[in-house]
Each structure stands twice: as structure tokens, then as C-alpha cells.
Design a protein that fits this description.
Structural class: alpha/beta
Strand content: 15-25%
Number of helices: 14
Order of helices and strands: EEEHEHEHEHEHEHEHHEHEHHEHHEH
Bound molecules: pyridoxal-5'-phosphate, zinc ion
Distance between the termini: 80 Å
Strand order of the largest sheet: 4-5-13-10-11-12
Number of strands: 13
Helix content: 25-40%
Radius of gyration: 22 Å
Number of domains: 3
Length: 419
């Protein structure tokens, strides 16, 4: 290949150069970006990263971006939070939360995929970009398009959370609400990408888009001191992120940046939309598409494009997949906030709830290192938990009013301890 990366068919292996396309025209299988790892080894060493800012672009050589690439923004570089309380509560030795709830600029890991997709959009000369979205992707496309001067037109299911719609509108993006679920929206977008010369990040730019997810995995390895964890728990919508974290780990081993070691991949879904976890649990050869019905709207994809690859990865790695109900999602959001001080959206409730379940099932061992991927921010899905926290009565701005308030809250008098 003339460049260090190009598209290759995941089934038949035919290469297609670099172009806005996502399917092999010979066998209709999905394309992915492949790299010349031998030349990459010579081009970049782990030590070269030392002086670079901690964001996703520090791994530029491992991403599908041109040689003369200049980072457009500071996406990624999120904290890996070492757990104290949940670690003890769950009785496991090493537990971390990779916190993309604070990803720049739009507070979800989707900022990473939009990062690489817009580099491709620029390269292919698109002026208008867009996506089919369950919410977070629309936020990320809108924010980065505004910054980089693309026209944005995003397509969403009509029933999305108001906060996610507002978080798209504020950047000046055109929003098209579709009466239907994500799978309807996505089918329409495939036709739109054909008809209009638009770069739809997760449709005709999908191979470039999904590479951005690898940086979530690179950061985990680097933040663990350039080593791989034993277990990762990853939320699944289309099933792309989980496979790209695996690709990232594999690449780091190929490049000699981390030592090879088996990593078990655990997938997390909401029970109300769990085609992948259901397929794993029932040991199906192929998942059965579902009609989503869950508060975890960002994961509500009933016919996941990367579902087969996610199932294969989970099985071959020796991991597992699980799902949690809507009430369990709410409990897990509260648990993560109360113990680790991280406020995540419903997707993070899914991941946290599933992690707890897997530990109870004995599938995640106590003496191993486990990383839980938190992918979105709780401020985006406040509707899901608002009823848990009823608004309290206001009191008068006087000390006696506060004392009376305390008396009403506790059986012991408020002044009992004060001398
Ligand atoms: C999109 C999304 C995911 C899952 O991504 P896939 O790569 O489609 O599996 C997980 N968490 C959040 C918050 C998301 O928005
Ligand atoms: Zn093919």
C-alpha cells in the first residue's frame, strides 16, 4: 500500500484503498482499516509519546490520519479512576473505571469516533457531515462540526432524551427526527449517503469512525503503566467499541509496547435491548434482532452492525455477556455516584450493573485487574433517575428554621452532640 493504512474486507480480505465506503463490493462484508505494522514499528516508538499532550491524538500514527496531520482539538485523554469503595464492596483486588463521561467536547466516548471520522470527511472533501444516532453521536458530530466548519445534519429516533436533543441543537446542527427506532433511522441514512454527497460518520465513513474507539483502549493500557488488564467490561450498542478495544490491545502487543497476555472481554447490554448478550448467553450462532424497549437509549440498537464480531470476540476471549433491567440500571447509576463520585448516564448504569452481576456470578475473579468502561455523562439522562430524588421543601433563611428542619429529619435532637 502507498499509505500506511487502507480499507480491507473483514471476510474476503480484498483491499479497497481509502474511500468513503463501508462494504466490500465483492462479498458485501464490512470493511475495516488495516495498517502496515512493520513500517509503523519503524515510524513510531512508545518513547516518542512521552512529550505529547494526553489526548487521543498522541496515538496519531496508529490512526487513519494523513502524514501531515495536525490535531484539530483535544478529544480524549480521560481519567482512569482507581476504585476504592466498590473494589472493597465487591471484594476484588484491582478495579478501575475508564471515565469517558468527561470526554471533551461532548461528554461521551463518541467524541473519539467523530474525531477520526471528521479527519476522513475532510480528506474526502465532504462539506456536510451527519450520522444516524442514539443521541451521543449526534452531540459529538454537532460539536466538532461547529468547531471545524462542517455543515451538520443528524438523524435521530423521535423518542430520544430531551437533553440529548438540546445538546445537539445548541451547536447549530440540523436535526431530523424520525418516527421509528434506531434501526429505521440507520436504514434511511444508508440511502441518504448513497443519494447525497454527505459524509455520514457511522455509515459511509464507518471504518474510519470506528478506529477512533481504539484510543479508549490505548489509554487504558498506557494508564495502567503500559500493561493490559485481565478483564474489560464494555457497553455494547452496535458492538463496535468492544471489538476496537480488542484491536487496540492487539496492536500494542504487535508493536511491542505491552506484553502479550490474555484479556477477557465482557459485554454489557440492557435487558430491554440485548441481542448480543442474549446471543452469547443462549450460545446462538447468530444473534436475533430485537425491538428495543429500555431507558438505556444510547445502547438501544436492536440489529447491531458489529454484533457478530462482538459475539466472536467475547467467546474466543473467554469472557461473557450479561444484561440488566431498567431498575437495575437506575440502582447502578446511584451506586457508582455514591461510591466513586462518577455520575454516568444510563449506559454507564448498564456497564456498572453488569459488572456487579458478573462478579456475583464468579465470572470476574477477585485476584484479577478489571477495567469498567464508563462511556457517557449522567447529565444527559437525568430523566431516567429524576423520580428517585424528589425535590425537598424550601425553608426560611433563619437558624431556627434550619434547626426545626433537622429535628424533622432525625429522631435525635439536632443539638444533642453540640456542647
Ligand atoms: C454508542 C455508545 C456505546 C456503544 O457503542 P458501540 O460501539 O455502538 O457498541 C456505549 N456507550 C455510549 C454512552 C454510547 O453512546
Ligand atoms: Zn469481501
Amino acid at each position: 500500500m502507498s499509505e500506511s493504512y487502507e480499507l480491507r474486507c473483514r471476510e474476503c480480505g480484498k483491499t479497497w484503498g481509502n474511500a468513503p465506503r463501508s462494504f466490500c463490493e465483492d462479498c458485501f462484508s464490512p470493511l475495516e482499516v488495516t495498517y502496515d505494522y512493520d513500517s509503523l514499528k519503524k515510524k513510531v516508538r512508545r518513547e516518542d509519546l512521552t512529550g505529547r499532550t494526553f489526548n487521543m491524538w498522541r496515538y496519531a500514527e496508529l490512526l487513519p490520519v494523513p502524514e501531515d496531520f495536525a490535531a484539530p482539538n483535544a478529544v480524549g485523554g480521560t481519567p482512569l479512576v482507581r476504585s476504592q469503595k466498590l473494589r472493597t464492596q465487591w471484594g476484588i483486588r484491582e478495579l478501575y473505571f475508564k471515565n469517558d463521561a468527561v470526554c471533551f467536547p461532548s461528554l461521551s466516548f463518541k467524541d473519539r469516533v467523530v474525531g477520526t471520522a471528521l479527519v476522513a470527511a475532510r480528506r474526502f472533501g465532504f462539506l456536510t457531515v451527519g450520522c444516524s444516532s442514539t443521541g451521543n453521536l449526534a452531540n459529538a458530530v454537532a460539536a466538532q462540526s461547529a468547531q471545524q466548519g462542517f455543515e451538520a445534519c443528524v438523524f435521530i429516533p423521535a423518542d430520544l432524551e430531551p437533553a440529548k436533543v438540546l445538546n445537539t441543537a445548541v451547536y447549530g446542527a440540523r436535526i431530523v427526527r424520525i418516527s421509528g427506532n434506531y434501526d429505521h433511522v440507520n436504514r434511511l441514512c444508508a440511502q441518504i449517503a448513497d443519494r447525497f454527497k454527505w459524509g455520514l460518520v457511522n455509515v459511509n465513513l464507518r471504518p474510519y469512525y470506528s478506529e477512533g474507539s481504539k484510543t479508549h483502549g490505548y489509554e487504558i493500557a498506557e494508564q495502567l503503566g503500559w500493561r493490559l488488564p485481565d478483564n474489560v467490561v464494555v457497553p455494547m450498542a452496535g458492538g463496535s467499541l468492544i471489538t476496537k478495544i480488542a484491536k487496540a490491545f492487539k496492536e500494542l502487543v504487535t508493536l511491542g509496547w505491552v506484553e502479550a497476555k490474555p484479556v477477557k472481554f465482557f459485554g454489557a447490554q440492557a435487558t430491554g435491548c440485548s441481542p448480543i448478550s442474549d446471543g452469547v448467553k443462549r450460545n446462538l450462532a447468530r444473534f436475533e434482532p430485537q425491538k428495543p424497549n429500555t431507558i438505556a437509549r444510547s445502547l438501544a440498537i436492536g440489529n447491531p452492525a458489529d454484533g457478530p464480531f462482538a459475539m466472536k470476540l467475547i467467546r474466543e476471549s473467554g469472557g461473557w455477556a450479561e444484561d440488566v433491567s431498567d431498575p437495575e440500571i437506575v440502582d447502578a447509576i446511584k451506586l457508582l455516584a455514591e461510591t466513586e463520585g462518577i455520575f454516568t448516564e444510563t449506559a454507564g448504569g448498564v456497564t456498572t450493573g453488569v459488572t456487579q452481576k458478573l462478579i456475583l456470578q464468579g465470572r470476574i475473579a477477585a485476584d484479577e485487574t478489571t477495567v469498567v468502561c464508563i462511556t457517557g455523562n449522567g447529565l444527559k439522562t437525568t430523566d431516567a433517575i429524576a423520580s428517585e430524588f424528589p425535590v425537598t421543601e424550601a425553608i426560611a433563611p433563619r437558624l431556627d428554621a434550619f434547626e426545626a428542619y433537622l429535628d424533622s429529619q432525625f429522631s435525635a435532637p439536632a443539638t444533642a452532640g453540640a456542647k
